[in-house]
Design goal:
- This protein has one domain.
- The model has no long low-confidence stretch (mean pLDDT 84).
- With 89 residues, the chain is mainly alpha-helical.
- It has two helices and no strands.
């Protein structure tokens, strides 16, 4: 996600951006953020990538047309909760 915040809605996005501005933070200039709040919220937002039931047209589009992507430094076998076989149509 290139250290971007993945908001849950347009309102969430606007609120997070306001809070960063209030704190004098800019994730486009400083990565990772030195402020624990900003860094924690950005990283925590990435959990939404794996929520297959989450749908918000402002952020991700409808479930029937969106794709899910993720990048990470490391994924260990003990972190995998479930694996499903994918077969392309």
């Amino acid at each position: 996600l290139n250290y971007f915040y993945l908001p849950s809605s347009e309102r969430d996005d606007q609120g997070f951006q306001r809070e960063l501005t209030r704190r004098g933070l800019c994730p486009y200039k400083t990565k990772p953020l030195s402020d624990p709040f900003g860094h924690r919220e950005i990283v925590k937002s990435w959990d939404r990538i794996f929520d297959l039931g989450w749908e918000d047209e402002y952020i991700s589009g409808r479930n029937n047309v969106k794709s899910i992507q993720a990048t990470f430094w490391e994924l260990r076998a003990d972190q995998v909760l479930e694996a499903r076989q994918f077969v392309a149509r």
